[in-house]
């Protein structure tokens, strides 16, 4: 499909999605009151009754002394699995309000721990397989929600934090936990057992092993966060936010190595997807692997809240050998978007230069986490796509639908500036 035809096709699709989409839903505030009532009905004295935990949480404040938590959808135990962040959320088409509803429905029962406690498997009060940490680890490595009973130490804090940090972690109420006991023997998949039993396996190798055996990054980052991967005594609890990026980066490096000697795509392709007020354009160009993410955050969006401000641009890139340091400017979105592109190229047995353009519109009124970046890019390659004769033609065609002029985009984007000459397209940027 020619690029101009593809753009017209996408415009019609976007108009239909806008027609079907609900208005910005701040009804989440009403949900908080209903949760408090439901919580009071399911708490007996100082214990949560009949709790089912689909996941865990490890905080990052005061590292290496961190807060570790078991997450429980109080009063909704029969649907516990749907409260765990996964690719299924995209398939369901959850809205921002849906995400807030699920996040704020999770009680985070917490206890403090030293991250090094995850490497203490030799018995005693800090043994990673005993007590609180043991239950948390069992929940993390299980392939389905686990029955637990949590003894609370005092009254839970029902103040909700729906903050503005783009994180995957829950923002529901918190309670100090005294005890936790399993109500069943969790089912642990055989590949996970293998990584647990091998004390000489580096965490990076264990992560790619699990990924190659069909585990998605969501499962792997939970296992990593619980300190269940790595070499014996070197195992550490990993804050949830860090584990998400660590897995995206590690698996991304593995995939980059897998496509390194593949033939390139044979023409310039333009793919597009839009989800939760975020639009993504992915331009694939023949050549050896190169990648850049450019983010355009519109005024009035969650990251650029002043309606009178201009569009905020950020960018980060890598060449064939990857990067040597963490990406600060685009943070976790960089690694999440890269994952989606690399998975697509690996599935095709190809490699390419990839430019990802992310437009965060003012419809993105609440932060839901980088999972939506990962899933939007993963699914950008479904269905129709456009083609172009030159990279310059592709960028110009896409730029007409971006919130910044072409000249400003080229001044910010290393690829848009550098590939221009490489492809022999010297059209003035204007």
UniProtKB/TrEMBL annotation:
Residues 318-426 form the Archaeal Nre C-terminal domain. Pfam families: Nre_C (PF04895), Nre_N (PF04894). GO terms for biological process: DNA repair. The keyword DNA repair applies. Keywords: DNA damage, DNA repair. Residues 20-304 form the Archaeal Nre N-terminal domain. It comes from the Archaea. InterPro entries: Nre (IPR033167), Nre_C (IPR006979), Nre_DNA_repair (IPR053546), Nre_N (IPR006978). Residues 169-180 have a biased composition (Low complexity). Residues 161-193 are annotated as: Disordered. The keyword Transport does not apply. Involved in DNA damage repair. This is DNA repair protein. It comes from Halorubrum lacusprofundi (strain ATCC 49239 / DSM 5036 / JCM 8891 / ACAM 34).
């Amino acid at each position: 499909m020619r690029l101009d035809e593809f753009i017209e096709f996408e415009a019609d699709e976007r108009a239909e999605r806008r027609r079907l989409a609900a208005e910005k839903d701040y009804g989440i505030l009403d949900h908080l009151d209903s949760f408090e009532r439901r919580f009071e009905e399911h708490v007996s004295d100082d214990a949560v009754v009949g709790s089912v935990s689909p996941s865990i949480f490890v905080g990052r404040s005061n590292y290496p002394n961190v807060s570790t938590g078991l997450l429980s959808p109080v009063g909704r135990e029969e649907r516990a699995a749907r409260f765990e962040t996964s690719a299924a959320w995209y398939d369901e088409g959850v809205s921002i309000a849906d995400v807030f509803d699920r996040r704020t429905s999770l009680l985070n029962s917490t206890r403090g721990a030293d991250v090094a406690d995850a490497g203490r498997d030799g018995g005693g009060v800090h043994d990673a397989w005993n007590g609180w940490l043991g239950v948390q680890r069992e929940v993390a490595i299980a392939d389905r929600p686990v029955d637990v009973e949590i003894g609370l130490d005092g009254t839970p804090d029902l103040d909700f934090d729906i903050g503005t940090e783009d994180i995957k972690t829950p923002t529901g109420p918190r309670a100090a936990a005294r005890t936790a006991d399993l109500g069943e023997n969790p089912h642990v998949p055989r590949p996970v057992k293998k990584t647990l039993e091998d004390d000489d396996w580096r965490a990076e190798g264990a992560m790619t092993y699990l990924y190659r055996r069909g585990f998605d990054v969501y499962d792997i980052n939970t296992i990593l966060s619980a300190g269940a991967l790595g070499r014996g005594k070197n195992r550490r609890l990993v804050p949830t936010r860090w584990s998400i990026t660590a897995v995206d980066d590690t698996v991304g490096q593995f995939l980059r190595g897998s496509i390194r000697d593949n033939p390139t795509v044979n023409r310039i392709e333009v793919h597009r997807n839009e989800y939760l007020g975020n639009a993504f354009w992915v331009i694939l160009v023949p050549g050896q692997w190169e990648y850049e993410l450019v983010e355009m955050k519109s005024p009035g969006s969650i990251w650029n809240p002043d309606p009178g401000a201009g569009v905020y641009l950020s960018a980060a890139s890598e060449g064939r050998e990857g990067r040597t340091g963490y990406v600060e400017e685009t943070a976790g979105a960089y690694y999440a978007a890269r994952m989606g592109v690399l998975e697509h190229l690996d599935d095709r047995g190809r490699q390419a230069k990839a430019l990802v353009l992310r437009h965060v519109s003012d419809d993105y009124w609440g932060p839901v986490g980088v999972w939506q970046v990962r899933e939007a890019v993963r699914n950008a390659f479904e269905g129709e796509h456009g083609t172009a004769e030159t990279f310059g033609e592709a960028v110009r065609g896409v730029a007409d639908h971006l919130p910044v002029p072409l000249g400003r985009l080229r001044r910010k984007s290393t690829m848009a500036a550098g590939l221009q000459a490489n492809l022999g397209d010297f059209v003035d940027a204007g």
